[in-house]
Amino acid sequence: MTDTPFDHLEIALQADASDRLSAEREKCPVQHSSAHDGFWAFLGYEHVGDAARDPETYSSASGVTIPAHAFPMALPPIEADPPLHMQVRGPLLPRLAPGVMNDLEDDLRAMVTGLIDEFIESGSADLAADLSIPFPGMSIGKLMNVPDDDVAMLRHMTAHLMQNSTDTDMIMQAMGFFQKLYEDRLANPAEDLPTAILELEIDGEQIGNEQFLAIMAMVMMAGLDTTANAAGTMFELIGANPEVRQALIDDPAKIPQAVEEFLRYATPLHASGRTTTSDVEVEGCPVGAGDKVLLNWLAANHDPAEFEEPDTLNIERFPNRHFAFGTGPHRCLGIHLARMQLKLLAEEVLARLPDYQVDEASVERYVGVTRGLSSLPVTFTAGTTAS
Ligand code: HEM
User: 8-379: what CATH class?
Assistant: First the structure.
């Protein structure tokens, strides 16, 4: 088999990434790329789903980013296999359960309202920089129970690391931040996520310092940039589709279902890596033990074998078994928080600046572990503050 130059990062940066991935999938749904030291790209819904649900063959313990990040350790639960995986994931599940998120709804809505208040009177804003990017940082800051100054630092570190995951200086800065949190919560346990992580037991023993740092870094990376980019791409899609915008203004109860379609369509966490533990044959291709495999969630989410008219944005789509949150044992742990955040953002923006227009020429895209927007300038009819 001949290697291809397939590069998911180069493709994911493009506005027409899903078209380009579909063209690649049609050429060859499983291909071996020479990019990033070589990996197999799985592009079809079935192969991606089967591999994600088979952690014995497709291991996460050697990392889930291609190329590899430069953290000095693996980041559980995402970079862990059984039994460690569930030892970390299991106790965190109730902390991010739907009921807990429902209890947070009013506080989260107040954050969105406050952010919109800062620009509503001016008639213009950057829906990425002024809203989609700061809001997830504020939400995670609340879960982590850290002061506002630390939230600003968390946001800065995450935004940087999601685009430059090999920047060792920034990694050391993040580790220093979490080390202080570790020492503080050891001395002053609280009813918050860091304390819950501190109390995790692995193989019957309370987790150590390094594991705490790794899990905190993972939650930070997973929870900030993903939602920011999901929100930015959602506002871009609403702006580009007037009939969708009107349907959601007329009936806001449609927003949760529409959010699933925005996620499928844009798939901000576009791909994850695995490493095979044994030789397997996929689509006639010899995937060898120890090979890197890329599960391209974005390509799978536009596969016509699963989705009728996959390139049409259809907010009534049902069922919508998309992989924007992954599938299998590593399916997103923050799914209920992310859905709540996106619902609140859409509700508040459509209620308060329903006629926003995107300045398409000034949109700025970026890609790293996730794909999304660093700038989404809009203009709208000025309104009044909520307070
Ligand atoms: C729209 C926003 C989000 C998207 C698109 C997203 C996407 C994903 C995807 C695709 C995976 C699976 C990766 C894999 O199998 O390799 C994942 C896992 C994960 N996500 Fe999210 N995520 C989002 C928000 C969040 C938030 C807000 C949090 C934290 C509060 C979070 C925490 C996690 C964790 C801890 C995992 C690893 C779970 C495990 O390995 O068991 N995510 N996410």
Answer: mainly alpha
pTM of the model: 0.96
Angle at 306 between CA 302 and CA 309, to 5 degrees: 55
Pocket of ligand 1 (CB under 6 A): 52, 64, 77-78, 89, 96, 218-219, 222-223, 226-227, 230, 268-269, 272, 297, 324-326, 330, 332-334, 337-338
Atom in ligand 1 nearest the alpha carbon of residue 143: 30
Query: Which atom of ligand 1 lies nearest, measured to the CA of 218?
Result: 35
Q: Give the residue whose CA is nearest to atom 41 of ligand 1.
A: 330
The angle formed by the CA atoms of residues 358, 320 and 91, to the nearest 5 degrees, is 100
Tell me: the pLDDT tens digits for 59-83? Answer: 999 999 999 988 888 999 999 999 9
Instruction: Determine the 3-state secondary structure of 366 from DSSP.
Output: strand
CA distance 194 to 198: 6
**CA separation, residue 185 to residues 75, 112, 129 (Å):** 20, 29, 31
pLDDT, one tens digit per residue, over 298-353 is 999 999 999 999 999 999 999 999 999 999 999 999 999 999 999 999 999 999 99
- Domain residue spans in the chain? 8-379
CA 58 from chain centre, in angstroms, equals: 21
Q: Is 69 helix (H, G, I), strand (E, B) or coil?
A: coil
Rounded to whole angstroms, how far apart are CA atoms 110 and 335?
Answer: 20
CA distance 353 to 331: 34
Q: Are 193 and 84 in contact (CB under 8 A)?
A: no
Fill in the DSSP letter of residue 127. I
